[in-house]
Amino acid sequence: MVIGGGVEATRKIQSFLDSEAKIWVISRDFTSELQKLGEEKRVALLKTGIKDAQVFVDSLSPKPYVLLAATNNPALNLELVKAAKNYGCMVYAIDNPELNDFILPAVAHVGDVKIAVSTGGKSPAMAHVLRERVEKMVTPQDLLAIQLQEKARAALKGKVLDQKERSKILYEILNSEGIKKALSEGKTAEAEELAIQLIEKGANQT
Predict the structure, then answer these.
(1) Strands 44-47 and 66-69
(2) Fewer CB within 10 Å, N side or C side of the chain?
(3) Can you give the pLDDT at residue 206?
(4) d(CA 81, CA 68)
């Protein structure tokens, strides 16, 4: 359960979307991104305000496994996590890292790549900035290389039994200048052909 529907709450919710968790978001207002997630049935939105944290948590049945306090009211966030802790819930407050039971990193998503960035709760804003930098570092060539590695791994399993030899060939494919050049130019068929040649060469040597 996430209390708050602003930008910071939206960022934190991203960490739970891939886990297939049932996510409730309670707030008077929601970001456009949260509204879209609600329309897609990926989260459940409840538009309401909370006047008394203890009364609100007492009323929850069943109690959530995890409660995130992400409002713009520090006093309310504090009361929410205190009340939830009394019921054994795991808690996270965006403005009170010393009370948190876990860390929520900022996660960069680029294609099949996911990289978590954390400042240990000291600066969520800086974690967001660093996440954006990381996302810019991952290139289309990197994503094509990942896809090629997946195909190469599948092909190697039927040709090379030794794990160390398979790993060696995969690194040869990864570091091949010819394959890098082909991927940088978007020539995936050419890159795959070069990878097959390295796989056949490696298989013949084992």
Answers:
(1) unpaired
(2) C
(3) 66
(4) 8
Strands 90-93 and 66-69, bridge-based pairing:
parallel
Query: What DSSP character marks residue 65?
Result: S
Helices (H), the chain: 7-17, 32-39, 53-59, 74-86, 124-137, 140-157, 163-175, 177-184, 188-205
Cβ–Cβ < 8 Å for 146, 124: no
Nearest Cα to Cα of residue 69 among 44, 86, 92: 92
Burial class (CB in 10 A: 0-12, 13-18, 19+), 189: exposed
d(C-alpha 133, C-alpha 158), whole Å: 39
Cα angle value 79/80/83 (rounded, 5°): 85
